[in-house]
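Worked example 3. Consider a protein that binds magnesium ion.
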Amino acid sequence: MESVRTILLHRSAYADNDLEADALRSYLKEKGVFVVNLMSSPGAGKTTTLTALINNLKDKVRIGVMEADIDSDVDAINIAKKTGVKSIQLHTGGMCHLDAGMTKTGLDEINIDDLDLVFLENVGNLVCPAEFDTGATLDIMILSIPEGDDKPLKYPLVFEKSDLVIINKIDALSYFNFDMEKCINSIKKRNKDATIIPISAKTGEGIDKVADYFIQRLKFYKE
Ligand code: MG
Ligand code: ZN
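Given these inputs, the predicted complex is written out as structure tokens:
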């Protein structure tokens, strides 16, 4: 296994992040590379979910992973060890979100020429990652059962921006007062087109459905 490199990111020199994000999306489309921006609170299970998902998809699709964190490289090392796919660690230098320039730097470093699908694990935070367009092809998020069913009411923007909402840790449903129907209704009120998939990254339940979702999206993207 190749060792995991760590890339230190700097804030983009571009004044307009939205323009840079749109340019990056066009470039990715031209290259035929699908980039997924994954957002969640800290501890919702981004790395565990990605590990299970990548192990499901890696024989069908060429995958790369970029793990963004304020510091530390534990996630990138973990994911490389458990999946064997190309993985790099991005350090944001204290920033609590990624912008399009940082994402582009990461993609240049990981080298997307031999990849179909790149997962970008954004910094664990439900606020500003939703405000800064990374230039990714698709925005998705994970909400976990212990966080509560009222998260869509408290952090509406991230739910509005996410095409896919994964509800993780359903194996823990019986320990928490989490009303699944109420939660799904709150998400739909914010984003009627969102796909919602309940899973347990721990037991593997629902991972097939998430994998199918990406296979379909990729097929459509490459057409
Ligand atoms: Mg993580
Ligand atoms: Zn931030």
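Take a moment to read the result before moving on. The chain has nine helices and eight strands. The radius of gyration is 16 Å.
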